[in-house]
Design goal:
The complex is a heterotrimer of chains A (300), B (402) and C (245). Chain A has 300 residues and is mostly helical. Chain A has 11 helices and 2 strands, in the order ααααββααααααα. Chain A has a two-stranded antiparallel ribbon with strand order 1-2. With 245 residues, chain C is an alpha/beta fold. Chain C contains 11 helices and 10 strands. In chain C, helix 3 runs parallel beside helix 6. Classes of the chains: A mainly alpha (300), B alpha/beta (402), C alpha/beta (245). Chains in contact: A-B, A-C. Chains A and B meet through helix 1, helix 8 and helix 10 of A and helix 2, strand 7, helix 7, helix 8 and helix 9 of B.
Chain lengths: 300, 402, 245
């Protein structure tokens, strides 16, 4: 097909707008990984719950859309904290400290994903629910029309990342969160309430996933099985960026988004989901620890 | 034990004995149903089959025989469908199997029923391969994909144009619809596809595809996908700025109510082929619409409701004509008798837009009983959608066969 | 100030400490000496609340602290300073120091202590915006000691501050530990470098197999024939004393 710059611009724009959403889910996955040493396989379902909470607030209770995002983030964050406290904590503790990255935790994550799916299924049914948010006419860039929801998604996602960055870098609690993520024993010795921080990390990661869910909802409608695809993409994003690296998660998300759209546009339109994993393999071949997965070298 | 409780126990025992005696005397016709009971509508299709069989029982059964119906959910998963079929056949010892909804589930079950010699009647699956396996035990109530594609292509080629883009989701029914439509456009008009993209069964982001389709400047877009995926694609086609003058063509699942409900305004103008139109003005159709509305709260029933209903009527006719012994010694003979009785149903006139007829040979010509497709367009989207009938076409028996 | 009686603990089912008794009086530097695998670090972990105490008591300022949560123990002013490798390599030097002050809410006090740490270790001030992972071994050891100071401790537990460092750097660090002690912080230093530790401390315990083997004034131990034979290799480096005073 003919090459033109307008289309190229459009494909990159599409990639960026979905990529930031992959990025914020990947951010949560990386946060949990660095904070709890677990790879959280139920995060797709947390994202789905966030989307449903957003739908309930916005559609059924008439809460304005931005407020619905916030409310969904709070509810999902609390749900995450309950899940971590009641189910995951026993497992992470059983291995000694919070640092066991064993099979048990992975299986538990899969189990939790099934449980959450079934709870959602019982609460909201299997049908996809439309999530119409009227933001007015789409933006027009020449021949490309970009619905306002995409723009809003990008803005809110970037805002969330900025707030998270500020929180981690500039606040005392944020510093404590980073300390716990880096080394729990030492964090204990600094007088940090490590279990509390771990709950905070998990809640934060779930709230981010919820924000992604509410942002995606108006574009793609909301349904019980929506978590799987997002989880796959977000994992790809997190690994591409370097597992556990927060800037890496965001950059990974954007790259996955752009790469899959360009792949679908210029290589083959079929099965565009494989491009995310193609990118993943390419990156890992060149840099096995991912783009930002740099170990800080310690001088002797 | 007090005298009163003794009395009650005696009474219960007596009732039990007579009850058992009665059923043993008349014999039960055991019917197994496996369907996709996952979405709200999916559950209602299954419920309708069970409710209709129940009403036959309430009206005295068939030739004095009660129908014993077991309904299982296969969730549109082929492994569950096959497990359900085996359970129904070997444990429940059913005389007749009804199922399934999804083509991907019905296809492997055809092999199970052929091997175990149990008649199978299909309520919803349209994949043409189902009747091309050469099983003598399978009957299809819905219109086969090969007829749909022919009707669709003829209408598109004559009224819309020949430059068509295709978005094909990875589920069996949509793949089949998509390939058949492309083949028909080629054989009827010599038209190659302007753009083809295979997408995931539950794809959520079509923007890149839509941008490509937009710059390709096509006459129409065929979106072959299950209802929710199709609805998303429709919405995104308008978001991408593809004008309404480019016609949106749906695959057979476009008839499912989630399409207009989720797509909203984007559903307007979408047309598709189906076995039944809620806009049908025959009295039987008006009555049926009203009944479904009252019983299941459905605004306008799609063809999966009408097919579930037609299936029960056809089974009722066939069972009425079959000479059944209904004891364990004659299980195989009874199954064969039911098969032959269904094969003898000719010219059934129900909700389907044309007559349904079966015959004895194990060929698609004999077992794709319904050859009449109706072309339907949405004139209004949303939960209170409105449709209109564009055309009704009955295809020749051999159509689409190689 | 710190009193440990009959301490028994270990990991899983493996007992490490078998009834350890020791005492650190206020304002003193006390050394706990012993080779690898004798239970020194285990003792510190038990005092800090990182592992459970099986039997025995730990008292700090007359209050039982055994099996309290680590952050509760820190809040009472008992701070453990781990080895240099336990800095936060991906945080800046200043961020590392600020983590140390996590339990405090008096901002002016924290700012004052930050200046004090920079005063003790000027090199940290120079590098305060650098990532801790880029520091040299000696600098990281200074950083973790400084981080401990940021908690405004009443008492510090130092885990092998001389480990894997060049002698010149060790002297520098020990001089600073001495300064910290004179500012009123009680210190328990756990060391393998017996000679250096005996110069620094006023009293010392020697641990073997989870029990205290020998204890006494540092000067006495320095001249004890047994200790000399087993731990000091026969010579005493007197010159380093001048440097510290």
């Amino acid at each position: 097909m003919d090459f033109d710059f307008t289309s190229l611009f459009a494909f990159i724009l599409f990639g960026l707008t979905i990529g930031v959403v992959y990025g914020i889910v990947a951010l949560g996955i990386s946060l949990i990984y660095s904070g709890l040493d677990i790879v959280h396989f139920a995060h797709g379902e947390i994202y789905m719950f966030g989307a449903f909470f957003g739908l309930v607030f916005s559609e059924h209770m008439g809460v304005p859309y931005p407020l619905a995002i916030l409310s969904a983030m709070v509810c999902t964050g609390l749900l995450g904290i309950v899940i971590e406290r009641v189910f995951y904590r026993r497992l992470t503790r059983a291995g000694g400290g919070y640092t066991v990255a064993g099979m048990g935790m992975i299986i538990c994550g899969f189990g939790m994903s099934v449980v959450l799916q079934n709870i959602a299924y019982l609460s909201w049914g299997a049908d996809a629910e439309p999530f119409p948010v009227d933001l007015g006419e789409p933006f027009q860039f020449g021949d490309i029309s970009l619905p306002k929801s995409y723009g809003l998604t990008a803005v809110i996602a970037l805002l969330l990342m900025a707030v998270l960055h500020f929180f981690l870098k500039k606040t005392k609690i944020g510093l404590a969160v980073r300390a716990v993520a880096a080394n729990k024993d030492i964090a204990f010795l600094m007088g940090i309430n490590v279990p509390l921080m771990i709950s905070l990390i998990f809640g934060l990661a779930c709230a981010l996933a919820a924000a992604a869910g509410v942002l995606i909802g108006p574009m793609q409608s909301v349904q019980v099985e929506m978590g799987y695809l997002m989880l796959m993409k977000a994992f790809a994003a997190a690994v591409v960026g370097g597992f556990g690296s927060l800037p890496g998660a965001i950059v990974g998300g954007l790259l996955v988004g752009i790469f899959e759209n360009l792949g679908a546009a210029y290589i083959s339109p079929n099965h565009k989901d494989i491009y995310a994993f193609l990118l993943l393999i390419l990156v890992l071949m060149v840099r096995p620890s991912g783009l930002f997965g740099v170990e800080v070298r310690v001088k002797a | 034990m007090t005298t009163t409780t003794k009395g009650i126990t005696a009474l219960l025992a007596a009732g039990l004995v007579t009850g058992l005696a009665a059923t043993a005397l008349a014999g039960e016709i055991r019917i197994g149903v496996t369907m996709r009971m996952v979405s709200e509508n999916g559950q209602k299709y299954g419920q309708m089959v069970v409710d209709e069989f129940d009403m036959i029982n309430k009206a005295g059964g068939i030739n004095g025989h009660t129908l014993d119906v077991t309904l299982l959910n296969d969730e549109c998963k082929s492994d569950k469908g096959v497990a359900n079929a085996n359970k129904l056949i070997f444990q429940e010892k059913i005389h007749l199997l009804v199922g399934s909804t999804c083509s991907s589930v019905s296809l492997p079950i055809v092999d199970v029923t052929a091997k175990t010699k149990v008649p199978q009647i299909i309520p919803h699956s349209t994949n043409e391969k189902i009747t091309q396996k050469g099983s003598a035990w399978v009957f299809r109530v819905p219109v086969s994909g090969r007829y749909y594609a022919g009707v669709n292509a003829k209408y598109v080629g004559e009224n819309i144009g020949k430059k068509i883009a295709y978005l094909c989701a990875a589920d069996a029914a949509s793949q089949n619809d998509c390939e058949a439509m492309q083949a028909q456009m080629k054989s009827q008009f010599g038209a190659e596809a302007a753009y083809v993209a295979q997408v995931q069964e539950k794809e959520v982001d079509f923007r890149t595809h839509m941008q490509k389709i937009k710059s390709a400047g096509v006459d129409g877009i065929m979106i072959a996908a299950l209802a929710e995926t199709m609805a998303r694609a429709l919405v995104q086609s308008y978001e991408a700025g593809i004008p309404a003058s480019v016609n949106r063509i749906g695959s057979s699942s476009a008839s499912n109510s989630p399409v207009p409900a989720i797509a909203g305004d984007a559903a307007k103008g979408v047309f598709f082929t189906a076995a039944y139109a809620a806009a049908d003005d025959r009295p039987i159709a008006r009555l049926f619409n009203e009944m479904v509305r009252q019983r299941y709260g459905i605004h306008a029933p799609d063809h999966d409701f009408s097919q579930a209903y037609d299936l029960v009527r056809i089974v009722e006719i066939a069972l009425g004509n079959a000479d059944l012994k209904l004891d364990s010694a004659n299980l195989a003979a009874d199954r064969t008798a039911i098969r032959d009785a269904i094969a003898n149903v000719k010219g059934y006139q129900g909700l389907a837009s044309g007559p349904i007829s079966f015959c004895a040979e194990a060929t698609p010509q004999c077992r794709d009983g319904n050859r009449t497709a109706v072309l339907i367009a949405y004139t209004k989207g949303g939960k209170d959608y409105v449709t209109e009938v564009l055309a009704r076409v009955t295809m020749p028996v051999d159509f689409g066969l190689k | 100030m710190l009193k440990v009686t009959g301490l028994e603990t270990g990991y899983g089912r493996v007992q490490i400490l078998r009834g350890l008794d020791m005492e650190v009086p206020q304002g003193r530097i006390v050394a706990l000496l012993g080779g690898n695998g004798t239970g020194k670090s285990t003792m510190l972990r038990a005092v800090s609340g990182l592992i459970r105490v099986w039997n025995g008591q730990i008292e700090f300022n007359g209050e039982r602290i055994d099996n309290k949560a680590p952050d509760q123990i820190v809040r009472r002013g008992l701070i453990q300073v781990t080895q240099g490798k336990d800095s936060y390599p991906s945080m800046t030097v200043e961020e590392n120091l600020k983590v140390g002050a996590f339990t405090r809410s008096d901002k002016p006090g924290v700012a004052r202590d930050l200046e004090r740490v920079y005063d003790y270790f000027p090199v940290l001030k120079e590098r305060r915006r650098q990532l801790a992972g880029t520091l040299s071994g000696g600098e990281v050891q200074m950083l973790v000691i400084g981080r401990g100071l940021m908690a405004a401790p009443k008492m510090m537990l130092l885990d092998e501050p001389s480990a894997a460092l060049a002698p010149k750097v060790v002297l520098d660090i020990f001089a600073n530990i001495n300064r910290i002690a004179r500012s009123g912080v009680t210190i328990l230093v756990v060391e393998q470098n017996v000679r250096m530790a005996l110069i620094l401390a006023s009293y010392a315990y020697i641990i073997r197999d989870g029990r205290i083997l020998i204890e006494g004034d540092a000067d006495d131990l320095m001249h004890d024939e047994n200790v000399k034979m087993s731990f000091l290799g026969g010579t005493v480096a007197d010159s380093s004393r001048e440097y510290m005073s």
